[in-house]
DNA sequence: TGTACATCAGTGAACGCGCGTTCACTGATGTAC
DNA sequence: TGTACATCAGTGAACGCGCGTTCACTGATGTAC
């Protein structure tokens, strides 16, 4: 959790002055909180400003409009998502099987632990073509998965190599489907008689088996 | 497409009278159109009423509030979805492989051709626990997939039978992930160098292969 | 060290707007007799 | 066949509310000299 700046009447070590000091970050935090409470459509400029303890006009110094704020939240979410995936992958150490499993768990953990970011990234209805920096941040996160698949494919005998891009898209779709349907931390989650992690791990093993990937020895 | 009732100044064969005659359906149609244009959060009671050519107070005769309208749209969407899946499955005729492939295509086709319903069903942020009839309609659609998996599993030798529920959840997640990321008919779709149908079919074949399901002869 | 000044973040008042919601009402329809 | 009546769907006016947005402003900060 990012440290929030102080507010009016909430002065840990000094009163809130005329300038907020960190309003941009505070607005993003406020947006995340509002997404958690009311969904992406519950985010308004006015309420974000109120939550940050500033006047309704203040946000205009930092964001063009509400969508620009949401886009920044989504971009930041993708950055964190990329970091989470990259850390989990850890360049395939100690072996690819363990690394892939960690990455899958990281995907689900993100959807569960950061439902607000997840929602902003995938369900806020942002037009990606209008916010290329969001799309690029998403692409960078996907690149982690793609690189992992390329590493795995390169270890297979030349005649048995599936296309790494396809493989990455399959794993992404599967992870995303499970995350969206069963792992999100809000009221739209559906109940199943197993954990999302178990569901994803079983599917991954079956999928790898189908590809002829010898994960046990990779 | 459901036939809409006539509007003010739009009288094919008779003037719009004091009573609308089919306002409930017209409001649902209006909601779908608004979802297509502005996303689920763009649906307001007032604008739906305007689109249907009635006063702002009229919708209250048919729906408790905006969420009740959205819930009815989602419920109707799940009903149509169930029908589409059931028709595609066709009780496994002429063979399971063809039936499964048709069902997968039907899933993607629904997301592509009915993005408004899809959005209402999966992305409107409805609290399923508050609208049990929506959840039940969704469960009925899932049952089609589950029954299909049970049929398939029953044809395997007793020692090689995976749990049908797990299998159904895997296929659902995969289909849903592909549909949500790549097949939806709006601005949030991501571009890939193949069709969603090809992506899903390849993944399904690999998955079935991994399960040891002899789909070629099923 | 002090002063003048430029810059900039946030203020607060104002405005128009559309939404949600209520209300007594009224026009249309169906039915009992 | 007609009439009286009950029912109900839709009206239109009204209200409060919160949001988006603009504006001249003002307090704080940093810097040139």
The CATH architecture of the largest domain in chain A would be Orthogonal Bundle
The number of distinct structural domains of chain A comes to 2
Shape, per Cα inertia axes of chain A: elongated
CATH class of the largest domain in chain A: Mainly Alpha
Total beta-strand segments of chain A: 0
Might you state the CATH topology name of the largest domain in chain A?
Tetracycline Repressor, domain 2
Distance linking N and C termini of chain A? 36 Å
Calculate Rg of chain A over CA atoms: 20 Å
Low-confidence stretches of chain A: 1-15
Mean pLDDT of chain A, nearest integer?
Answer: 89
* Helix content percent band of chain A: 55-70%
Number of contiguous helices of chain A: 8
Could you state the CATH homologous superfamily of the largest domain in chain A? Tetracycline Repressor, domain 2
Which class of secondary structure composition applies to the elements of chain A?
A: mainly alpha
Largest inter-chain interface?
Answer: A-B, 43 and 43 residues
Describe the structure.
The structure is a homodimer of 218-residue chains. With 218 residues, chain A is mainly alpha-helical. Helices cover 61% and strands 0% of the residues of chain A. Chain A has helices at 23-38, 45-52, 66-89, 96-113, 115-122, 132-154, 164-183, 196-211. The longest helix of chain A has 24 residues, at 66-89. The structure holds a DNA duplex (33 and 33 nucleotides).
Per-chain topology:
The structure is a homodimer of 218-residue chains.
Chain A: H1 23-38, H2 45-52, H3 66-89, H4 96-113, H5 115-122, H6 132-154, H7 164-183, H8 196-211
The structure holds a DNA duplex (33 and 33 nucleotides).
